[in-house]
Design a protein that fits this description.
Blueprint lengths: L1 E3 L7 E4 L4 E8 L5 H16 L4 E6 L10 H11 L2 E6 L1 H8 L19 E2 L36 H19 L7
Parallel strand pairs: 3-4, 3-5, 5-6
Antiparallel strand pairs: 1-2, 2-4
Helix pairs in contact: 1-4
Length: 179
Amino acid sequence: LSGHNSPAGRNVRHLEGEMSTYRLYVLKILEDHKDADSFLTLAEQRLKTIKSHKFAWWDPSLLLPGDDREAEINKYLSEASYVIPLLSPSLLAATKDEKDREVPNIAKIQDKLFPVMLVNVPLDGTVECFGIDARKIYRGDQPEPRSYNSLDSAYQRNRFVDGFVSQMIRRIEGRGGWR
């Protein structure tokens, strides 16, 4: 993991690889920092080892004092290959609060979404998910879908993240659909 301070790559954490670079905008909320940091640490370690791709991560916590928050967020969103919302009730509440400038308009980034269920959110229509629930939400590779924070052991959390990385690579390489 290396940080770059060039004007174009300022404040972006890079995960080194060999070929193409994919920019991952992580959408998380402060209230979920413990679970989000745990998930992202494991994911970064795994994505760092992928031979055929390079990954750069960004989230609004990397803003520097004096940065124009809205302009920087919009810039990184437009440059992102994928937006990874770490779904939780807190994130959805912030999305509903139009005054929260760190949470983008989901409708504008639908095609870039790769949502992950960090903290369980009911997907039965009782909670406003802002269209995120129209996309497949990554909830592990077990027969019973789970959220990351509901997993009891390090083994389960590692397996959840392994599945996330596998699905991310499949999406990048266009290996969905018929098998």
